[in-house]
């Protein structure tokens, strides 16, 4: 097997593979938003047939060139077709692919590297053998195949009270018919938290990528004023919570919860199997996601940086990732 840049002449084969084995983050419409900063790699078998893919994103941080997952994407999009029939051969094939991928990331030039494997990839030994740091991360996933009443019962009592209060106080929760409203609420939240955001890319997601067939968004209104919104994207099986926001000057305890709950119900109604909160290592955010009754699912982040760079980054940022 070999890894090489995936060129246009393989785009048709890639589209077919990614539609079956990838996620919405592998779709051509999603990837093109990152332009030249994203490099799409192909995994080829000995017959030069495309069998898988992943990507990486180049940028700078603190003036240093680095490689990381693309903004708003939870992982590096790795997927591949395993042709083996029995379990031992499947394990060996996966090991060979992971060794190939780890060799690739070791070979590329960057002051530091941060990438993550999609949920389900557990064999990180090749990265450990090559002296990468492997860190467990977590997301919460809700099984949408459960009946709605079970989904509701799985919420914490606090979340159920919030939903009831929103209904009692007459909040209107409806599908977002004006994406500008979602954008304004999100930007208010980032400004309030003093967080930087790639506004150009966020606008591409909201105004160019998002379509009725690949996104779900709900907004909460009080007295005809939008006060909270949640925005998700999805593929054929899974909805991913991407971003949300609220108006701190007109906040209601049940507004954000209600928009998220309606996103979950909409995802269920269109036949999706899973709702993924795209997890967070921040305690307050983790608690908020946890209270929606999902199952904690691990995935793995891969990092590598010279000791001095890592030390400086930890001093400045508190953590490498």
Coarse morphology: globular
- Mind describing the biggest β-sheet? 13 strands, mixed
Instruction: Give the DSSP E fraction (strand runs of 2 or more residues).
Output: 25-35%
CATH homologous superfamily of the largest domain, by name? Gcn5-related N-acetyltransferase (GNAT)
How many β-strand runs? 13
Q: Give the CATH level 1 class of the largest domain.
A: Alpha Beta
Could you describe the 3D structure shown?
With 321 residues, the chain is an alpha+beta fold. It has two domains: 2-137 and 300-317, Gcn5-related N-acetyltransferase (GNAT) (Aminopeptidase), CATH 3.40.630.30; 145-272, Aminopeptidase (3-Layer(aba) Sandwich), CATH 3.40.630.30. Helices cover 37% and strands 28% of the residues. Strands 1, 2, 3, 4, 5, 6, 7, 8, 9, 10, 11, 12 and 13 form a 13-stranded mixed beta sheet that branches. A hairpin with a 5-residue loop joins strand 2 (38-44) and strand 3.
Search tags:
Aminopeptidase, 11 helices, 37% helix, alpha+beta
Provide a compact summary of the structure.
The protein is 37% helix and 28% strand.
What topology emerges from the helices and strands here?
Elements: E1 2-5, H1 11-21, H2 28-31, E2 38-44, E3 50-61, E4 64-68, E5 79-80, H3 87-107, E6 112-116, H4 125-129, E7 133-143, H5 148-154, H6 157-168, E8 172-175, H7 179-193, H8 199-209, E9 215-222, E10 225-234, E11 238-246, H9 255-269, E12 274-276, H10 283-290, E13 295-304, H11 307-317
Parallel strand pairs: 4-6, 11-12
Antiparallel strand pairs: 1-2, 2-3, 3-4, 3-5, 6-13, 7-12, 7-13, 8-9, 9-10, 10-11
């Amino acid at each position: 097997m070999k890894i090489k840049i995936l060129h246009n002449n393989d785009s048709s084969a890639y589209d077919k593979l990614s539609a079956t084995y990838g996620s919405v983050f592998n779709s051509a419409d999603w990837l093109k938003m990152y332009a030249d900063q994203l490099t799409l790699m192909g995994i080829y078998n000995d017959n030069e047939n495309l069998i898988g893919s992943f990507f990486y994103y180049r940028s700078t941080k603190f003036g240093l060139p680095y490689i990381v997952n693309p903004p708003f994407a939870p992982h590096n999009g790795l997927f591949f077709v395993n042709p083996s029939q029995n379990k031992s051969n499947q394990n060996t094939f996966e090991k060979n692919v992971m060794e190939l991928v780890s060799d690739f990331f070791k070979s590329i030039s960057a002051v530091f590297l941060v990438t993550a494997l999609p949920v389900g990839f557990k064999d990180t030994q090749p990265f450990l053998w090559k002296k990468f740091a492997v860190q467990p991360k977590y997301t919460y996933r809700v099984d949408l195949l459960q009946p709605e009443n079970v989904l509701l019962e799985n919420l914490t009592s606090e979340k159920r009270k919030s939903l009831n209060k929103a209904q009692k106080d007459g909040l209107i929760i409806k599908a977002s018919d004006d994406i500008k409203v979602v954008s304004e609420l999100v930007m208010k939240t980032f400004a309030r938290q003093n967080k930087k955001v790639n506004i150009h890319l966020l606008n591409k997601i909201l105004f160019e990528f998002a379509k009725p067939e690949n996104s779900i968004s709900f907004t909460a209104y009080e007295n005809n004023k939008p006060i909270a919104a949640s925005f998700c994207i999805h593929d054929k099986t899974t909805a991913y919570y991407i971003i949300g926001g609220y108006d701190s000057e007109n906040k209601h305890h049940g507004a954000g919860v209600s928009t998220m709950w309606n996103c979950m119900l909409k995802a269920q109604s269109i036949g999706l199997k899973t709702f993924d909160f795209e997890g967070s290592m921040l305690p307050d955010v983790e608690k908020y996601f946890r209270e929606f009754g999902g199952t904690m699912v691990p995935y793995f982040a891969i990092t590598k940086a010279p000791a001095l760079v890592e030390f400086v980054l930890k001093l400045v940022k508190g953590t490498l990732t």
